[in-house]
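[step 3/7] fold_predict: job queued, chain A
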Amino acid sequence: MRVALLNPVFWPEVRRGSERVVRELADGLLDRGHRVRLITSHPRRVGVAIEDGLEVQRVWRPPIEARLQRRLHEEHLAHLPLATRALRHYAPDVAHALYATDAVAALRAAVAPVVFSYMGIPHRRSLANRRGRKELVVRACAEASAVVALSQVAAEGFERWLGVTPHVIAPGVDLVAFAPDPAARAEVPTILCAGDHTQPRKRVGLLVEAFGLLRADVPDARLILSAGADGPSRWA
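[step 4/7] structure written:
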């Protein structure tokens, strides 16, 4: 089967949950003998490359993207015409999008059934804080062949705010990559937060406040925060 995965950005440019999910999903499909191509975007004209066995096509993301974001339009809009064209050229048997904009691009391409996986918990506040976001999510949910939520809590958000009952498929964990090493335990109680501290919805600020309260009872506790792909980790 020819599978197209669509995510607006990919590593090393961006390293968050969606990028890990799409990579591990691709690896699982490749292991089962399917042909998989990830269609994503980049500010430079990169084209198609094989990255650790995965076909990755980075279509051009025009600089107008920054202007759209400053005007509070939904993120990841500028690359959609080229993503739609790339999908039509690839002609997959199924298209799986991990962001609403790319799901709508796949629907416009009209070349294959579309699966829309929502990487978060739908809520009235998050759906309304960008111009056009709600309309894109509503269309993706209404027209996709299947809608996937990451958890039962996320599914409840779909039902409450969008009137949609999605399939619940929790993302897997690579137990080899994340196997604990009993001999390498931290010397003091340690909390690791891999969330992007620049994204308010990750609520890293709330974690830091709570950690301050914990320190009153556990003075040697340590909190490690991610500074992103281009910076060192930070700790308190």
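[step 5/7] annotate
The first helix runs from residue 17 to 31.
Helices lie at 17-31, 64-70, 80-90, 100-109, 124-128, 133-143, 152-161, 204-217.
exit 0
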